[in-house]
Each structure stands twice: as C-alpha cells, then as structure tokens.
C-alpha cells in the first residue's frame, strides 16, 4: 500500500497544514496508513523547518511518498516494511500564463 503527493505553500505553517491535509486523505482511502501518518508528517515538518522561509516571490515545493507492506491476511497483518520519502525545496512561484 503506497501513496505519493506534492503540495506548495508560501509559509511554514501553511506547508505543515497542507501536508497534514494530504496525509488525512491518504488515511481515509488507505486506513493502514493511520499507523505511519504521524511519522510521515513529522518527517516533512522536520525538513520544512530546516529551510528558510520563502522570500517574496518564492514558495515551498514539497513531495511526500510512503508505503507499508505486510505478511498475513487482513485479520492477522504483520507489517514487514515501512518507508517514507520527503523532499522540500524553496522555488520561485510560477508566473501566470497568459491565454
């Protein structure tokens, strides 16, 4: 069971909230990820906090992916692997395209 998403935000608070919102959606559609949602959010926030706040005309670009694997059937699951990947960059805000 795996997931992947990208979000952008202009502040650290907004970045953390958007990651939390996306992880909530993951947990709603893949309930097993309730087991690792808090850890994935903590990892993302740690990297968000590592970088300086975006300057005028910049934003955070954040990607998060994760997976859980298990042995056994649905009644006797034993998790056999868990992973999360996080990337955070400060990038220019894209200029609007003209129609």
**Into which percent range does the helicity of residues fall?**
25-40%
The helix count comes to 2
What's the overall geometry? elongated
Class from helix and strand fractions: alpha+beta
Computed Rg: 16 Å
Q: Whole-number average pLDDT?
A: 94
How would you sum up this structure, described in words?
- By secondary structure, the protein is of the alpha+beta class.
- The chain contains two helices and three strands.
- Strand 2 (58-71) and strand 3 (78-92) form a beta hairpin.
- Helix 1 runs antiparallel to helix 2.
- It is elongated, with a radius of gyration of 16 Å.
Summarize the entry for a quick read.
The chain is α+β, with helices and mostly antiparallel strands and 99 residues long.
Index terms:
2 helices; elongated; alpha+beta; about 35% strand; single chain; about 100 residues; three-stranded antiparallel beta sheet
What's the SSE blueprint?
Layout lengths: L1 E8 L2 H18 L7 H14 L7 E14 L6 E15 L7
Antiparallel strand pairs: 1-2, 2-3
Helix pairs in contact: 1-2
């Amino acid at each position: 069971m795996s997931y992947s998403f990208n979000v952008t935000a202009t502040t650290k608070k907004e970045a953390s909230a958007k990651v939390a919102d996306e992880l909530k959606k993951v947990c709603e559609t893949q309930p097993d990820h309730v087991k690792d949602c808090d850890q994935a959010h903590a990892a993302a926030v740690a990297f968000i906090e590592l970088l300086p706040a975006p300057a005028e005309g910049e934003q955070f670009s954040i990607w998060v992916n994760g997976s859980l694997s298990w042995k056994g059937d649905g009644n006797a699951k034993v998790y056999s692997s868990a992973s999360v990947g996080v990337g955070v960059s400060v990038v220019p805000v894209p200029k609007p395209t003209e129609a």
